[in-house]
C-alpha cells in the first residue's frame, strides 16, 4: 500500500516536471536573451557601435520592438549554429553529459522526444490522428497512435491488437496521457498529424473544414483533408 502511494506520488511529481521544466527553461531563456539585448540596444550604445564604423544614426532613429526582433534573429542564428557540424558535436557532448544524471536524463529525453515530434509531426513518432472515447463513453478526445502496444501487454487482448495512443492536453501538447486500447475502439480521422496538433494547440479554434471519420485500418497514415480536396 505504502509502496503504491510512493510510486504514484513519484510519477505525479515527474509528470509535473515534464511540463514545467521545458516550459520554464524556454520562457527563462527567451527572457534572459531579451533582457540582455534590451539593455544592450539602447540608443546611446547603438550610437557608439555605429560610430565605430564611421557612421551616424539619424536623430529621430527609433525601431519599435528592436530588442524583440533582435532576440528572434539571435535564436535563429543559434539554430543555424546547432545544425552545423560543429554545433551538432557540441550538442551531442552536452547530451552525453546530461545522460549521466538519472532523473534529469529521464525528463530531458522525454521532453526532447515530444518536442522533436512537434517540430516534425510527420515523422513516424505519431502515425495517425484518431478519435477515442476518453475519459468515458460518450466523450471523444483527439489522440495520436504512436505504435503497437508491447508484446506482453498486447497478449491481454486475444480478439484485437492493442495500440499506444497519446492523448495530448490543450493548448499545451507537451503534456497528456498514454492510453492503451484495442484498434477497433479507435476512429481514424482524415487529417494529417500536423493538422491534428494544430487543432490541439489552438484548442479547437483552428481546424480543417472537413473532418470526418475514415474506415481505413489504424496505423496507415492518411493524407490531410486539404490534400484530398485538391
Tell me the β content: 5-15%
Quote the average pLDDT.
76
First-residue to last-residue Cα separation? 58 Å
Per the principal axes of the C-alpha atoms, what is the gross shape? elongated
Rg to the nearest angstrom?
A: 23 Å
Number of domains: 2
Quick structural overview:
The C terminus is likely disordered. By secondary structure, the protein is of the alpha+beta class.
Topology:
Layout: H1 2-40, H2 43-52, H3 66-82, H4 85-98, H5 102-119, E1 128-133, E2 140-148, H6 151-154, E3 162-168, E4 176-182, E5 187-188, H7 193-201, H8 225-228
Describe the structure.
With 230 residues, the chain is of the alpha+beta class. The protein folds into 2 domains: 2-119, no CATH class; 128-228, no CATH class. 50% of the residues lie in helices and 13% in strands. The protein has a 5-stranded antiparallel beta sheet. A hairpin with a 6-residue loop joins strand 1 (128-133) and strand 2. Helix 1 packs across helix 3 and helix 1 (2-40) packs across helix 5. It is elongated.
